[in-house]
Predict the structure.
Amino acid sequence: MTIHAGHAGAPRKALPPRPSVLRQMWTSRADYLYVLPAIVVMLIVIAYPVYYTIDLSFFKTPPGLQLKDKIFVGVENYTAILSSEVFWKVTLNTIIWTVASTLIAFVLGYAAALALHRDFAGRAVLRAILIIPWVISAVAASYIWKWMYHSDFGIIGQVLVQLGLTDRQPNFIDNVHTVLPSLIVVNIWREFPFAMIMIMAGLQTVPEQLLRAAKVDGASAWQRFWHVTFPHLSGVSTVTILLLAVANFNSFIVPWITTGGGPSNASHIWITHIYELAFGRQRWGVAAAYSVLLFIIVMSLGYFYVRALSGNEKKEEGP
Amino acid sequence: MTSTSATEAPRSRRRIDGWRWGGRIFLVFMLLYTALPMVWMLLTSIKSGFAAMQFPPQWWPNEPTLASYQKLLDPQNSVGQDFLRFFWNSLSVSVVTTILAVAVAVPAAYAFSRFRFPGRKFLFFAVLLRNMFPAVIFLVPLFILMRWLGLVNTHGSLILTYLTFGLPLAIWLLKGFYDNIPYQLEQAARIDGATRFQAFLYIVMPLSVPGIIATAIYSFIGAWNEYIYAATFLTKNEQLTLPVGIQRFFSENTTDFPGLMAASFMMSVPVVVLFLLLQKYFVRALTEGAVKH
């Protein structure tokens, strides 16, 4: 990614000779001062843990954090993971969780942004209310929903009973079949506002003249959306979907606080599973191996993320 | 779309109305989905423990009571003492994190926006990628690192960690802001004899205030709501921040739903108020920083 300067010397013969990288670095040495604080913090808190996790994933570890007594076992942790049934169960859960949460949150947020774009009385108040779930603590949100799903006194179940839709209070989060969808509802509640804010911001950049011109030309509301607004928002949409996907893939608090991954792993996703392996069962080596696998997945998602983010930058840098 | 047919106008207006009604119904649905859980939290928090657990449910409590709030805010009893201490811990950690995050992100974002030093792109992506790593990967190694630094059971461990997860988006937002401030403004100032730093301080900084406010809100909310690191790095009761403190407390008192809802409400108040007061900066920062290029 350092193409910009890193490989400048070698292949491009047409260009006039450029100063060597080291010289460039030396002449711009003062510039590094500005980024130095950020980089130092990052190095401590990212580079070291990444190195450490990879290292630990090849060891069998005794319980407790007495990591001096670890034993080298090669790739045994990895083979153990890939051959376990729980791994595939949790992976499937994670895929359902990430895809469903991301898509539904995005669509709801997108639609809400469109519906809020036109001015009407009370719009600002409504917008503010819709954003609140995103702002409040995930721990508080988890407790609110856990209480609403409660198997005896949960309001959702009580309403269903009173409406005569079921004769018994349904058990949303203690049931292997309903727990994951129930938690996805909570997660979407927390995340659609983010998509909404991003799309609202994007909508402000859609040129008004273009929409008016389309209207004059007889384009219907749908045609104006589909041919003008939608393509205009494709950049923001990509970034938003990627950010949501990453956030969902990495989410922890909602499943952990509401169910702890249960019942019988039905709501375990990767992160909660790793956390339980490490801090619940103290299997540090296996948890580290899981983390490395996770890391690889996240990095490949990251590739698209960086491409989506830097797409705009390339244009601006031009010749 | 080159043909101009004015005859289509009435029909398309009727169609717009259909969309508008669809939009209204959808917004009502979203309002209910968003607000009902929060309303239920408030209603539960003003019930007695007995009233909260009844069938059929009491929608509006027969005898509304502020007992849960009194209990949580009373420094005389042990529950109140704990709650107020957690609140104070959360507040101090979040404020320090916010100040440091702005102090670190401003120069970094400025450099990423203005300078063309080798490795600039790589560093910028490294910063962004930090966003993508799940906290769990870092927990064990960071715990050991914090132990080595002697920071376990101090708020320093949290502040250092929160800084790093707040920084990537902060830098990204601010960079977008600086990209939109014409460099000519600074050049003009420098021709008039200002140093680069003076130009930055007097020309660029004031123009980027909305971006800085957005960065600050983002850092504050992130720090205020963080759970997983706080649950790992802090073991002493008197050090806990609100999310962990509330979780520990109610894992022992599993049936005090009014208390739990009151605590959840009070934990939400500071961030919601802050956000509502400053939301226009936040939305504007996203427009300037993240969307417009």
Remarks:
- Confidence is low (pLDDT under 50) at residues 1-10 of chain B.
- Residues 67-291 of chain B form a domain with the MetI-like fold fold (CATH 1.10.3720.10).
- Chain B touches chain A through 110 residues (CB under 8 Å).
- The CA atoms of residues 154 and 234 of chain B lie 7 Å apart.
